[in-house]
Amino acid sequence: MSLLLPSEPRPRLVVLGLDGLPLDLARSLGASLPNLRRLAEDAVTVRAELPELSPVNWTSFHTGEGPEAHGIFGFSHLDPKTYALRVTQATDVACPTLFDRLGERGLVSRVVNLPNTYPARPLRGMLVAGFVAPELKGAAYPPFLADKLHEAGYKLEAYTSRGRADLEYLLSELRATLDSRLAALDMLWPDLAWDLFVHVFTETDRLFHFFMDAVLHADHRDHLACMRFLAAWDHALGRFLARYDELPGPKRLLVLADHGFTELKTEVCLNTWLMRAGLLSLSGPPLDEWDASRITPESKAFALDPGRIYLHERGRFARGHVECVEREGLLARITDGLMELNYEGEPVLRAVHRGTDLYPGAASDQCPDLVVEARPGFDLKAKFDRRNIFGLHGRTGTHTVDGAIFADTRGARPERMRDVGRIILQHFDIME
Q: CA 238: distance to chain centroid?
């Protein structure tokens, strides 16, 4: 072929992540938000992996695997020797990512704000890590990208500590992260020297956690303020879609959320339930909600975020005393007791799953013995410093397993999050 002739067109796949956006709400909001209406028009839903948390599900997306393979089961990672809890991060991912596998084929990925990718690992392309990323220097690859982002005033994450108490502050934080995402888009997109582009907006998740009631109810005093922000968010979607529309073909667009969302009825603390059942005790007042170091040798079980329950087994945990012969009886006792849990006459749980059933073949020491699945509206927690099983603590929205938005310009219909990653591998003819 003559060197003067144009090369074959570069087929590109674009992924737009809309963290925590349910399809039913997208269709409702789409009445006044035109870009969202476009995305929701032909969308379906995809089921979240359990637990229905961002690190679990975005990792399932960007590996094409379930937790049994990638090893991410929640926000927190427990040291079984010291009982110290730390935040889950990218170095805990136990299998190759999509970006690893595309890079092996010479394909280039550009990634913006993808959760559970901190610290940024080398890849063929560029990456800006998302939640939880504590500092910019380790959140960008190649390293020079961090300096460019810093110059642009890039904000990794909104500060939500004031949450429900200060809507104006929260919205100002979300506007800053929204502007940052667009700044990164303007840096990483224009040269088109990429095959896969992944861009995640997380602002909906943050807003819904604290003001889902205001978003859903037009008579709420904060409804208009929330809708004004969502109009700005929709405008950002429009800027992203305009870039996609201008992209030369062949091209493909996937749109997805990592879980659904609904209005909160109450939080449910499983560690408090275990304490009341005589299965968990602490050696003294915990320093904070994460302080697992106070778990006593007499404890039979404990929970980690949000619905992971571990038997305190000898040989697995430094202070564990549960013997193998006790295992089945304890699992049955906990399962039966939790399935009877009611709140104001309403059953709280949909199911209690065995970890061995939910995650077949899992080798990670973080794999739970039981995974508790709540009914919509109930938010499972695993705090060590709460005295009450039920209660509200400043949030009005919670995740759901079902209902997350999914759309594909080529009409794929994945069942759960790991399948979306596999769609991407299939698109690039990377098969098992």
A: 23
Compute, in degrees rounded to 10, the torsion defined by CA atoms 174, 178, 184, 190.
Answer: 180
Work out the end-to-end distance of the chain between its first and last CA atoms, rounded to an integer number of angstroms: 33
Is pTM beyond 0.85? Reply is: yes
- The predicted-structure confidence for 106-128, as pLDDT tens digits, reads as follows 999 999 999 999 999 999 999 99
Q: Return the closest-CA partner of residue 30 out of 252, 265, 255.
A: 255
Strands 378-381 and 266-269: parallel
What is d(CA 116, CA 273) in angstroms, rounded to the nearest whole number? 30
Give the ranges where 189-287 is alpha helix by DSSP (H): 203-216, 223-246, 270-276
Half-sphere exposure of 374 (CA within 13 A, CB side): 29
User: What is the SS3 assignment for 90-132?
Assistant: HHHCCCCCHHHHHHHCCCCEEEEEECCCCCCCCCCEEEEECCC
> Residues 38-65: pLDDT tens digits?
999 999 999 999 999 999 999 999 999 9
**Phi/psi of residue 301, nearest 5 degrees:** -160, 160
**Separation between Cα atoms, residue 152 and residue 185, nearest integer Å:** 12
At which residue do the structure tokens 């973080």 appear? Answer: 366
Which candidate, 427, 422, 414, 426, places its Cα nearest to that of 12? 427
Per-position b or e across 288-298, b if 16+ CB within 10 A of its CB: ebbbbbbbeee
Q: Which residues contact 66 (CB under 8 A, 6 or more apart)?
A: 49, 60, 359, 418
β-bridge pairing 346-347 and 404-408: unpaired
